[in-house]
TrEMBL record:
SMART domains: DEXDc (SM00487), HA2 (SM00847), HELICc (SM00490). Gene3D superfamilies: 1.20.120.1080, P-loop containing nucleotide triphosphate hydrolases. Residues 1019-1029 have a biased composition (Low complexity). The keyword Mitochondrion does not apply. GO terms for molecular function: ATP binding; hydrolase activity; RNA binding; RNA helicase activity. It is an enzyme of class 3 (hydrolase). The lineage of its organism: Bacteria, Bacillati, Actinomycetota, Actinomycetes, Micrococcales. This is ATP-dependent RNA helicase HrpA. Residues 228-405 form the Helicase C-terminal domain. The keyword Coiled coil does not apply. Residues 202-223, 609-629, 999-1036 are annotated as: Disordered. Keywords: ATP-binding, Helicase, Hydrolase, Nucleotide-binding. Its EC number is 3.6.4.13. The gene is hrpA. Residues 205-223 have a biased composition (Acidic residues).
């Protein structure tokens, strides 16, 4: 209805009322008017009333915040004497208090933007007031740009832009006339009082240091800032009373400052008064926020100190503020075009923000503002804060522009043109969401983007594009109710509160809803719980429940309102909402919910990086590094982030996450997360994924070529490795691999197929094998034209569309009927010139005596088997002799001679150059068959001397210089033909496999059907071929306690596949009995049998040890009791064995008996002499032990740090002479010398103290001799089967010690270092 102008009253105390006439004229005469006024000037409430006086009856009044829209509408209605909803109404997101009679409609700028979709020309309004335009939000900038385009189409429309005194000229220039005349600016003074600004720069780094993007609480700068705040408060304590507003950059800084300020004032006297400290920031609970705006209840309050973020600059007015302390920093939301994330770095505030902060001190009286930075720093700061359009992603704006068909993004008249990179990133996000046609994100800089079906749907939802994409995908996944609830919860401020004094209780209450795998499901659990409680409880009870469970009731109600609004707006999308669960439990699969959410978060997924940052190949070295590495994620475009500590996933980070929000503070944090399978993103991303293929290879089992596919989404490997058929992406390469592997390299088995059709494969394989064996023997690679020739053969015949074995089999079954020989190769296809092989030069087997051994040839330089290998069955290995093998096969002998000639010393080599020609001469002089009695080098040296008269010896050849393929290799195989060992040194191979070869020989001669090894191609020993006895045979036995044989043969033979297997029966001592074993060599038999015979003689002879033990003298008992044996009886038993061994050796020096007659004769002789021999042996042993005890006492007495080395040598000598079993080990003949050796030790130690230098010199000679002994293979004590030369030298060493250290005792024979060297040679 028309306004009654006479009823409108303008409060005279407001500055805007004094300039009403000027403002009225400007509005009447101009289409756009800029009104600039400081806070408190009255422009917000009085301008709509001025418009009413001009007859404007459809006034739209926008506000940046919902709370401001409601309170302003109430204030204007009160001044007009009207109810809200009549002449004055308002509309915010969930509330519409406007009617058909409404003349002034106050709304948020977002409401007006949504109305543009239904009313492109905004004909509903004749006047639009854009309030608080200086805040330069994204909505305000877009609205101002749209209104500029609307002005020519609506000449009747009046636009009024109100702003603080911050750069009003920019708005005037934006709405300039076509001739360039700017819109008029009317400046209105505010109701402010003088504010004294004091600069108190910090003693550390100035505010310039706060521009870092990475300022962590607790650093030196923060401590300096807190110190500066405390100093400012002390300074203000000297001023008149009044509350203090302290501006800080963030919540953590406020908490640190709160603790410091409380501690600062806690020690003041009672007369000083009480100081109340109140924090104020966005995440604070409503109750804690209201404490700042309500009268205090603290008794004796002297001053309030409010610690606030920049929320108190313009958004909220804190009453009673007289003083301001400005730290000069704030967290400014900025979009990073590089990382594609929203950042919240701490930055130095602009001059305009600093003035806004200081202005808060002059609202009610004169005030003081203390800035914790210098005036020079203030002057260097930017004049204004960057508008939001330069600091945020533009996807939502671009989406709305596209839906309104506003043309090119870059041509739109924004107040401040957006950064081209921001436009590109906004288009990129819309492309990621599938909202614009593919490719438009790169072309939209020059033309308007075109919306897809999804983009059109997104433009109708009043939420962020990412959230809208989730809602659309929820229909496909069947989880619309759950996703709408989660999206609504993400859009509002978190309803969960954590009061400062009850944080623990709040956390425990909220933990009931926590899902360890997903913050989204945690939010959904809370939603389900609230829905159940809302149905069960009345309004008041529900409100009380929210308070008890630390939930903000207003935010919960806002959550429900937004959910209902989204449900209504989503109806055109055809969403199906399942009913809520009655018990509050889950109604949908969590994976389906997460897949729907993932559709909007494709560029916000991350994979956990378990490596240490900055060291890709280094593994974590300690627990701290492992924890840091395990918390970091690799995200899109190379970004790295960590899960926010408040997330339920923070304690146990999963392998992959998606995040609703990536925000950079001290580092890049993911704030709302869920564990996901990254492969879910592949079908959602469509053409956004980048696929790469690696490791193309042939899979014989699948019968086709395969490759590994890697799928990247914005650089994140969502599918790190997946196998696929190569023919799907590269059929030519798949066909090539099929031919090379299946046909050329024969990695395809056609044996189970019809051989009448597929017999070509068998024939080709046989032909290739025949030619390949000739190449290996002759060491040539020119017989075959090679694999490329075979490939070309098949490539010319196999069709282009055949790339798998299945496809090949299908094709060939039809083609073979017409051309059966199409794929059968001939020698002419593979060999350019016919080459004949000399089979005598490269024989298939080697003969040594009656043995035939298979030869294998290999032509592969660098391989251990390159050259000729003799394949030796284990049963034949022991009898093989090295002689003759060094002659090589005839085909390689000339090359061997050439190599040996080049291995001669230069002086000799001059007589046989050129080497190749001399090699031919020498080979011609060599005998036809190898001479196994002498080394080949000796034969060759003899020929060289004969032909050149040059003195040359076999030792002149440097065999290390001879190529490896010219040395014969020996490979031992078991009865199944499996390799069990190999070496170029036959003796070394025999020693390494002595035990196994002995077992194989015995098995072949005793087991039915036993076998000795695999032979060569029809000749030599064959697996499973039975061995037939030749001559006498004798079975193996164990547990034998008496002589049971009339005669033990010297050896037993058997033939197996034409080869002779020979074994040597031996009697082996098992302790309480003996065994008859078939050993592989006579040396093994000769070493084992004497000990076995000795044991049988001991078992056949009554033991005198009990009698001897009873008749020992006391001195003998004392001496024997100190022996190293476990008991005296054990010692006497060992003496008995030594006595028997002495008698056996007297009668049979080799210790071997073959017949029963021989054994009985030795047994009788032992029985007659054993008592006396044992008595004599005990006496000698007692003397030895007595001498050993005396030597040990002398060593103990002479113990000194300076004599450690010689005394240690003496102790080692005693240990080598007297040890468990030493009597039988040394024998009675040698036992009589041991006492002398031990006496020599005693005398050496006695002289050592007087002349250690002389002892040291003699010890050097002993050590030289001992080294010769050990280098020859000797050890102390010697094993029982030691060679005779080592036994002799072992006792020569003892005689040498006597001659050097106790010469007066005399030696058994002449001894010296040269004699020892000669004995070893």
């Amino acid at each position: 209805m028309p306004a009654n102008v006479d009823e409108i009253v303008f409060p005279p105390e407001l500055p805007v009322s004094a300039q009403r006439g000027e403002i009225t004229d400007a509005i009447r005469d101009h289409q756009v008017v800029i009104v600039a006024g400081a806070t408190g000037s009255g422009k917000t409430t009085q301008l709509p009333k001025i418009c009413l006086t001009l007859g404007r009856t459809s006034i739209g009044h926008t506000q940046p915040r919902r709370l401001a829209a409601r309170t302003i509408a109430e204030r204007i209605a009160e001044e007009l004497g009207s109810e809200v909803g009549d002449r004055v109404g308002y509309q915010v997101r969930f509330t519409d208090k406007a009617s058909a009679s409404t003349e002034i409609k106050v709304m948020t700028d977002g409401i007006l933007l949504n109305e543009i979709h239904r009313d492109r020309l905004l004909r509903k309004y004749d006047t639009i007031i854009v309030d608080e335009a200086h805040e330069r939000s994204l909505n305000i900038d877009f609205l101002l740009g749209y209104l500029k385009t609307l002005l020519p189409k609506r000449p009747d429309l009046k636009i009024i832009v109100t702003s603080a005194t911050i750069d009003p000229e920019r708005f005037a220039a934006h709405f300039a006339e076509p001739d360039g005349t700017p819109a008029p600016i009317i400046e209105v003074s505010g109701r402010t009082y003088p504010v004294e600004v004091r600069y108190r720069p910090l003693t550390g780094d100035d505010a310039e240091g706060a521009t870092s993007d990475d300022v962590d609480p607790g650093t030196d700068d923060d401590r300096d800032a807190i110190t500066g705040i405390l100093g400012a408060l002390d300074e203000l304590d000297r001023e008149a009373s009044g509350d203090v507003l302290v501006f800080l950059s963030g919540e953590q800084e406020i908490r640190d400052a709160e603790d410091a300020v409380r501690g600062h004032y806690s020690g003041r006297s009672a007369g000083y008064g009480t100081t109340e400290v109140l924090p104020l920031y966005g995440r604070l609970s409503s109750a804690d926020q209201h404490r700042v705006f309500e009268p205090t209840s603290v008794v004796g309050l002297r001053r309030r100190i409010v610690l606030a973020t920049n929320v108190a600059e313009t958004s909220l007015t804190v009453p009673g503020i007289k003083y301001v302390v400005d730290a000069g920093t704030a967290r400014i939301s900025r979009y990073s075009a590089r990382a594609k994330v929203q950042r919240l770095p701490i930055e130095a505030i602009s001059q305009a923000s600093a003035n806004q902060r200081s202005g808060r001190a002059g609202r009610t009286s004169d005030g003081i503002a203390i800035r914790l930075y210098s005036e020079e720093d203030f002057e260097r700061r930017p004049e204004y804060t960057d508008p939001e359009i330069l600091r945020t992603n533009l996807a939502a704006v671009i989406l709305q522009m596209a839906s309104l068909d506003l043309g090119e993004v870059t041509a739109f008249p924004f107040l401040t043109p957006p950064d081209p990179r921001g436009v590109t990133d906004g288009l990129g996000l819309l492309g990621e969401l599938g909202a614009i046609e593919v490719g438009d994100e790169t072309a939209a800089r020059s033309r308007a983007p075109r919306l897809t079906r999804i983009g059109t749907q997104l433009s109708r939802l009043p939420i962020e594009p990412r959230f809208g994409r989730m809602v659309i995908e929820s229909k496909t996944q069947g989880v619309s109710r759950e996703v709408l609830a989660i999206v609504a919860g993400l859009t509002i401020q978190d309803p969960r509160e954590r009061p400062l004094e009850r944080r623990g209780e709040a956390d425990a209450m909220h933990a009931r809803f926590a899902d360890p795998t997903s913050d989204f499901l945690t939010l959904l659990n809370l939603w389900n719980h609230l829905e159940v409680k809302q149905r069960e409880l009345g309004s008041s009870a529900f409100r009380r429940m929210c308070k008890q469970e630390f939930l903000n009731y207003l935010r919960v109600r806002e959550w429900h309102d937004l959910f209902r609004q989204l449900v209504g707006l989503s109806k055109p999308l055809g969403l199906k909402l399942l009913p809520a669960p009655a018990d509050g439990g889950a109604t949908a699969a969590p994976d389906a919910v997460h897949r729907a959410l993932l559709s909007g978060l494709l560029s916000q997924i991350g994979l956990r990086d378990d490596r240490v940052s900055g060291e890709p190949k280094a593994q974590p070295k300690n627990r701290g590094e492992r924890q840091r590495a395990g918390r970091e994620y690799l995200g899109a475009r190379g970004t790295r982030f960590q899960v926010f500590p408040g997330s339920t996933l923070a304690k146990k980070p999963p392998q992959a996450v998606m995040s609703a929000e990536l925000v950079e503070t001290s580092r890049l944090f993911a704030r709302m997360n869920a564990s996901i399978d990254p492969a879910w993103a592949e079908p959602l991303a469509g053409d956004l994924v980048k696929r790469s293929y690696s490791e193309p290879r042939w899979d014989a089992r699948a019968g086709s070529a395969v490759a590994d596919e890697k799928v990247l989404l914005f650089g994140v490997p969502i599918v790190p490795k997946r196998r696929l058929q190569l023919a799907r992406v590269n059929e030519p390469l798949a066909r090539e691999l099929f031919i090379r592997h299946a046909l050329v390299q024969r990695e395809w088995d056609p044996s189970k197929l019809d051989q009448r059709v597929f017999g070509f494969a068998r024939k080709n394989t046989a032909l290739l094998g025949e030619l390949a064996s000739i190449e290996e023997r002759t060491r040539r690679r020119d017989l075959l034209l090679g694999d490329e020739t075979v490939f070309a053969f098949y490539d010319a015949r196999v069709p282009a569309d055949v790339s798998t074995t299945r496809g090949f089999e299908r094709w060939w079954r039809g083609a073979a009927r017409a051309t059966p020989d199409l794929l059968t190769m001939t020698r002419a296809d593979l060999v350019p010139d016919e080459a004949e092989e000399d089979r005598t030069a490269y024989p298939a087997e080697w003969r040594q005596g009656d043995q035939r051994l298979r030869l294998e040839y290999r032509f592969e330089p660098g391989h251990p088997d390159d050259g000729v290998s003799v394949v030796v069955p284990l049963v034949l290995l022991p009898r093989l002799e090295p002689g003759g093998f060094d002659w090589q096969v005839p085909g390689l002998r000339a090359e061997l001679v050439t190599a040996l000639l080049r291995a001669l010393p230069k002086v000799i080599r001059r007589s046989v150059v050129p080497a190749a020609e001399w090699a031919d001469k020498l080979v011609a002089e060599l005998p036809a068959e190898p001479d196994a009695t002498r080394p080949f080098t000796a034969t060759l040296a003899h020929l060289i001397r004969k032909l050149t008269y040059t003195p040359v010896d076999a030792s002149d050849f440097d065999l290390e210089r001879v190529p490896a393929h010219l040395r014969m290799h020996f490979r031992a195989v078991d009865e199944r033909g499996k390799r069990v060992g190999g070496d170029d040194d036959l003796r070394a191979l025999q020693a390494a496999l002595a035990g196994r070869s002995t077992e194989a020989v015995a098995r072949s001669l005793t087991e039915p059907g036993g076998s000795g090894g695999r032979g060569a191609r029809g000749r030599g020993p064959q697996p499973g071929a039975p061995a037939s006895a030749v001559g006498p045979s004798i079975p193996e036995r164990s547990g034998v306690t008496a002589w049971e044989w009339d005669r033990i043969p010297e050896y037993v033979d058997a033939r197996q596949a034409g080869n002779l297997i020979r074994a040597y029966p031996a009697i082996v001592d098992d302790g309480a009995s003996v065994s008859l074993r078939l050993l592989a060599t006579p040396a093994d038999r000769d070493a084992a049998t004497p000990r076995g015979i000795r044991r049988l003689l001991a078992l056949a002879t009554p033991s005198p040890t009990s009698y001897v033990q009873e008749h020992l003298t006391n001195q003998e008992k004392l001496a024997l009791g100190a022996s190293p044996y476990p008991s005296t009886k054990a010692l006497l038993d060992d003496v008995l064995l030594a006595a028997i061994d002495a008698e056996l050796r007297r009668l049979h020096p080799d210790g071997l008996l073959a017949t029963r007659v021989e054994f009985d004769a030795v047994r009788d002789a032992v029985s007659q002499t054993v008592m006396d021999a044992v008595y004599a042996g005990v006496a000698q042993t007692a003397a030895v032990l007595t001498a050993a005890r005396a030597a040990e006492k002398a060593i103990t007495k002479a113990s000194s740090i300076q004599l450690m080395a010689p005394l240690a040598d003496a102790r080692a000598q005693i240990a080598g002479l007297v040890f468990p079993g030493f009597v039988s080990a040394v024998g009675l003949e040698r036992l009589r010398h041991l006492a002398r050796y031990l006496q020599a030790i005693e005398r050496r130690v006695g002289r050592l103290v007087d002349n250690p230098g002389r002892d040291r010199a003699r010890l050097v000679e002993v050590e030289q001799a001992t080294k010769l002994f050990t280098d020859a293979g000797g050890v102390i004590p010697l094993p029982q089967d030691a060679p005779e030369r080592l036994v002799r030298v072992r006792w020569l060493l003892e005689e040498l010690r006597v001659s050097l250290f106790a010469q007066e005792l005399g030696t058994a024979e002449t001894v010296s270092l040269p004699r020892i060297r000669k004995a070893l040679s």
